[in-house]
Amino acid sequence: MITVEKLSRRYGDVTVVDDVSFEVRPGRTTGFVGANGAGKTTTMRMIMGVLSASAGEVRWKGEPITADVRRSFGYMPEERGLYPRMNLVDQLVYFARLHGLDPRDARSRVDELLEHFDLTDRGSDLLDTLSLGNQQRVQIAASLVHRPTALVLDEPFSGLDPLAVDSMVDLLQQEAADLPLLFSSHQLDLVERLCDDLVILAGGRVVAAGPVDELRDRGAVRYRVVMDGADAAWLRDLRGVRTLDVDGEEALVELDGLKPAELTRAAFERGPVVEVARMHQPLSDIFRESVR
Ligand SMILES: Nc1ncnc2c1ncn2[C@@H]1O[C@H](COP(=O)(O)OP(=O)(O)OP(=O)(O)O)[C@@H](O)[C@H]1O
Q: Does domain 219-291 fall into CATH 3.30.70?
């Protein structure tokens, strides 16, 4: 487990990361979200030791993190860092060797990853001849080449189409299922789909953190009512309900005194019903409310 404990970073008088604490647990995917400039990259750089902290510390399995432990992590930096004019095999072997794999092990690991990433036939191609999606796959492969103990990925999915995202997610789930995985992203739908835990940063501070399910449950419970061929506007006059939106046969409501079963009964009394469904609060709402 990676523990970030009261981490701060100042530039002159400006504090860009302010007393940030959270945990990244093994076997769990932790999403790191926040508006542009919230401090995500700065925090990740401090976790990786690329940038020193002004205060606070990073721990690994409860102990202060060391350079050796950091070397064992897989890191995908925001500025990337592969060599555009080097072929895939040579550069992945190079990274594996930098991490201490012997030549034979490095080569077999690279072959394994290229196969896994469906890039075997591109092994001798230069990186910059690959599509953006394939270059991102190589970036991920580079972060996995030394069989890391944890993964810290700065916007690994940016610029990818939905199918490329799905295939990257599959690969990560196969290769890194048991590892602590922290990744930053602006794609909230993706974060919602992938993450077990969430850390929301605003202005350098953690404004919400915890399991995604718990964060969702903290918000108001909403119900979607869909009538069959009848206007749903009657919900506006129902006592014990706050109507958030009505669109023809559909309405979104919050219960304000009424019980769920009473809402369902009231709907059936008004006419044919397609559904009365409890809605999870979307992550985008949690995000907006947290950073407000
Ligand atoms: N070397 C630096 N000197 C001064 N300020 C800096 C420096 N590096 C970063 N900052 C500032 O720190 C703040 C946090 O930046 P950071 O890149 O960590 O945010 P972020 O959440 O990763 O943003 P984005 O989503 O846009 O990548 C920003 O206001 C940025 O301008």
A: yes
